[in-house]
Amino acid sequence: MSLFNHQTLVLHPDFAGLEDFMISLPDRFLHDEGVVIHNGRNQLRRITYQGADYVVKAFRRPNLVNRFVYGVLRPSKAKRSYDHALLFQQIGVGTPQPVGYMNIRKGLLFDRSYYVTLASTCPYRYEDLFHRHFDYEEEVLRAVGRVTALLHNHGYAHKDYGRANILFEKTPEGIRLDIVDLNRLAIGPLDMKAGCKNLERLPATPAMHRIIAEEYAKARGFDAGECYRLMVAYRSTQPGKEEKEIEALKHYKEKI
Fold first, then answer.
1. I need a labelling partner for 218 at 20 to 30 A (CA). Which of 28, 43, 123, 224 fits?
2. What's this model's pTM, rounded to 2 decimal places?
3. Which UniProt keywords are listed (predicted)?
């Protein structure tokens, strides 16, 4: 890298030997290596390297103003994702094992960043609860309530806590969750209202809300009925939610 093209690379101590892989990421994306998992504002690819599967998130180049902001004043989204994953691990909340991140800057202007994790073993996303039958779905919902409460008790609120960002699998030990897309995290005390509002982007039928509310309230010492009322009320404010969830109800058996 020249004086004007600067690269910052951070690797988790357990993956110190992956420097060459990290440096090669721009070229791998240029040549469409791996399998695209998501292609939107940012792109996620699953890439196999030396027998292991990694998920690489390439954040898009920001606009000109934000290129300066991220180049000089603010940590990149990749760095925030990495740092937040370590926070989650410290309190026992599942997230794919962070491997590292890389920022690329051109002069004072930020260019691109990459965040790398091991691929999660969880085969399902929360939204799959609406499209197929799971005989352990109540266990999943209770796990969501408990894990959300654990995050909130530590003052962490995932700011994109939606249907695609909670992964799950059933193991002999119980339900395992992996929370993903961690670059946007609010840190600070959360009371009952703020905690329930943090779930507003998560679709749920009334039966699902009751189960989540029961488990969340139990873990935080709140009233379950009031948590349920707040969750339903906050969810109802989300634009376009009614049509999607009415359709989803056709595929989900009510329990209340």
1. 123
2. 0.89
3. Kinase, Transferase
